[in-house]
């Protein structure tokens, strides 16, 4: 699709062209809830903070928090969507296109964020005339980038619906950790008010993400998978001829005996979703150590039963490991 030059000159429209997912639908139930939560949360933060920070201080605080969210979200989107792309192969052509678009969107936003940070440090925007115009254009473009990327989670839900809640929760946790690490003590708001704002925002994001995750998991559990599954018992079973010379029938093959306590094997597109994989991925939102255990347990169970959800269990393990690494790095930095 071709765009006019005037659309690229307009910074808000240019940001929408670059960062709004093609299949974004603001009429979806959870998108409406997310918009309501974000707008009402921003209003409450401004109303509570203006008496202590002033209008310019509140705007700077919101922009800095948005930049933390953007950087963390781009990083986790690249990690989680890349893991999904590797695990869920082969993907249909349309789904592979959406995965690539999500990765490109997240990578571009990460690069633009770093470039804007370097431009501010090198004082490019302080040049009279062209520098001021460039600064105004860049600020509006950055706001458009933050709005469209964070609102639709960089298009991670286009790759798979369950990736959106996972990336959202990991982004919120990491952004809060970064904000605490980089806190210079210049915040004039009372400590109890700051705690209320931080914990209220984190709790609302995680609660909405958990509701969306379990709702989508319930819906997907009722739908057959479009990806073919192999029977784990027939992978290494050689095919023998039915007759062995002179028209004599071959002796019948001995049936494969299972252990009496082994679970039944579910194969084919109608195989159910493994429950441990679902709870393991949800554990990243609630308790990441439990997510790590459940993810590993789910992988072992899926290998025996042939159920769906292997990629979800791998994402649970990878997300838990990333969360643990982030906490360790934050702890080491603070010390």
Automatic annotation (TrEMBL):
The UniProt entry's coiled-coil ranges are: none
- Report whether Transmembrane shows up as a keyword of the record: yes
Alphabetically sorted, this entry's keywords are:
Membrane, Transmembrane, Transmembrane helix
User: TM segments?
Assistant: 36-55, 67-87, 102-120, 132-154, 160-178, 199-218, 276-299, 311-334
Q: What is this protein called?
A: Uncharacterized protein
Q: Which organism is it from?
A: Micromonospora echinospora (Micromonospora purpurea)
């Amino acid at each position: 699709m071709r765009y006019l030059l005037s659309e690229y000159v307009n910074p808000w429209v240019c940001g929408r062209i670059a960062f709004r997912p093609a299949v974004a639908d603001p009429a979806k139930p959870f998108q409406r809830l997310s918009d309501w939560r974000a707008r009402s949360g921003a209003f409450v933060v401004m109303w509570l903070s203006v008496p202590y920070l002033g209008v310019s201080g509140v705007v700077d605080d919101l922009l800095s928090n948005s930049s933390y969210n953007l950087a963390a979200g781009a990083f986790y989107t690249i990690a989680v969507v890349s893991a999904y792309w590797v695990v869920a192969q082969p993907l249909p052509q349309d789904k592979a296109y959406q995965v690539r678009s999500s990765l490109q969107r997240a990578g571009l936003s990460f690069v633009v964020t770093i470039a804007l940070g370097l431009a501010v440090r090198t004082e490019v925007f302080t040049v009279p005339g062209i520098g001021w115009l460039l600064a105004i254009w860049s600020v509006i473009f950055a706001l458009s980038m933050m709005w469209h990327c964070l609102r639709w989670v960089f298009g991670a839900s286009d790759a798979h619906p369950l990736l959106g809640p996972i990336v959202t929760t990991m982004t919120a946790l990491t952004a809060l950790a970064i904000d605490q690490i980089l806190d210079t003590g210049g915040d004039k708001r009372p400590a109890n008010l700051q705690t209320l704002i931080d914990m209220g925002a984190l709790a609302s994001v995680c609660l909405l993400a958990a509701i969306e995750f379990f709702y989508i998991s319930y819906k997907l559990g009722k739908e057959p998978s479009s990806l073919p599954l192999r029977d784990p018992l027939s992978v290494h079973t050689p095919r023998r001829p039915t007759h062995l010379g002179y028209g004599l029938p071959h002796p019948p093959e001995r049936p494969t005996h299972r252990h009496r306590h082994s679970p039944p094997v579910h194969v084919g597109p109608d195989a159910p979703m493994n429950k441990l994989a679902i709870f393991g991925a949800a554990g990243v939102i609630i308790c990441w150590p439990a997510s790590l255990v459940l993810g590993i347990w789910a992988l072992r169970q899926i290998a025996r039963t042939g159920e769906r959800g292997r990629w979800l269990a791998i994402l649970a393990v990878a997300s838990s490991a990333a969360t643990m690494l982030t906490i360790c790095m934050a702890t080491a930095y603070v010390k």
